[in-house]
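Running this now, will post back.
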Amino acid sequence: MTDPYADEAERAHRLSRRFGRWMERWRAMIRRRPWLNTLYKVLVTVLGVVVVVVGLILVPLPGPGWLIVFIGLTILGTEYHWARRLLGWLRRTLARFWERWNLWRAARRERKAAQRRNDDSGPRPKPGPAVRAERST
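Update: finished.
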């Protein structure tokens, strides 16, 4: 079986390599000037922290709060190794959570289907007078 998105994935990979080479040249140009490198790091840090804080503010509200936090950590991860490690840990944790969530939902769906099959297996007898008397007490 072939992957229907293989062509698109290959195209994205080619584009990312081209963009990556351009970014490497650009960063090398910035690193040659110490004052520009310092300014770049400060700007990346401020931008990343602002995006993370805005994302954390939006987490309890409806909307893409955690996505914005991940974007902020990605921005910080361009310059700081600790941010890349934290982002990797968060991605692994989120993947484990979604896996458990999907397993729980599948098990729940199966329990409900089994319950419906048991309920639909035959007509229920109407409760007699003895059963009605027990329920009323």
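Helices lie at 6-31, 34-58, 65-77, 81-119, 129-136. More later if anyone needs it.
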